[in-house]
# Entry
Amino acid sequence: MAVSELDPNQSLDAYWMPFSHNRYFKQDAAHRSNRMLAKAEGSYYWTTEGNRLYDALSGLWCCGLGHRHPRLVEAVKRQLDVLDYATAFQMGTPAVFHLAERIAEQAPAGFEHVFFCNSGSEAVDTALKMALAYHRARGEAHRTRFIGREKGYHGVGFGGISVGGMVANRKMFAAGMLQGVDHLPHTHNLKEMAFSRGEPQWGLHLVEELERLVALHDASTIAAVIVEPMQGSAGVIVPPAGYLKRLREICSKHGILLIFDEVITAFGRMGKPFAAQHYGVSPDLITFAKGVNNGLVPMGGVLATRNMYDTFMAGPAHLVEFFHGYTYSGHALAVAAAHATLDVLADEQIYPRVESLAGVLEECVHSLKGEANIVDIRNCQLAAAVELAPLDGKPGLRALRVFEEALKRGVLFRFTGDIIAMGPTFISSPDELAQMTDVLRQSIHAAG
Ligand code: PMP
# Structure
């Protein structure tokens, strides 16, 4: 396959890479030679040197249908011939109204409204603001506290890092945090639940910490609890059996809104449109992004219940009901890609396919149990993680080595700390999952 060339004289200095070790990447051509992407198709990338890489994380959890799906590409090209950008405020397009309706139809019962934005981070900020404004509209403006969870990831807006619980993402910006945020304890405990398949049987008791926080602050001060149904970015930390159901019960008892951040889990990864359906637990707000249009054009959104929407609509009729929105909310190209994505999800029967691939992935990753230096293996539908013991006492070093060894062997994994994460494309074959697992095994051996 033809690939675009890397000009050897191209300076790498100007581009400040996101969530990346810039100096390491830029200092040594040997490190980056395999890390310049030029082309993608289906479950594979090609580097500028022409090496093929199996994309073990579907982009960053967003390209489940594979790269450059012909129907998505076609839909965006067709849209470009008609309308590029449609001004978003006080105006709309038929396609964006229709898209909201289609998304709401797939959501758990009661979710009837969709607010669009452009990323997961924006979706989280939107949901937090909706929660505050909702309570205010109902005469409960004193409900201002948020409760997140340790190891939670909710993007990089100030709202998201405040309710998020990944220490590295927070500590550089401590002074800018939202006030009045608490965190539930995480449920990641290698002593108690290492090598669980699917939902761990240990850890349900930790949800009762919410009662402690409610007693401490008084329910009347708490606006919402926000959690990822499955903690993806922290390394596929799966909720203990019964955890989300109990969380729902406690929130309902105290009039606290429950927000599911489904930026990773929505639109395929869980074998259902939403993790809420997989777990049989219905929150009050759902954020989504990534999978909604397969990462083709940035898009995110928030699903709200009829009750929430009606509360806003009950205000003075001449006023904007929710003073919030983005220039690119419901961008015409993103909307076109999302319609095509929903078509493909249905026509290619992706949800049942993911359900069956999930069993294959579970068998594959747990076959690594017993290999040296693996301290945990976790899986949740079409997501999995292998946690490694740190090398020479340096956190993250072993996973970095494994990542590089895997690149040499044609697989692109994501690593975070000492965790190797996998979120294969929905179109992967069982053979590809087996090969990915073999490469991981070899790479762990080679990393020493
Ligand atoms: N929430 C969750 C649960 C996520 O996984 C992510 C991204 N991985 C985000 C929010 C932020 O999304 P974005 O990077 O599109 O802002």
The mean pLDDT is 96. The domain at 22-65+349-447 is CATH 3.90.1150.10 (Aspartate Aminotransferase, domain 1). The first strand starts at residue 37 and ends at 41.
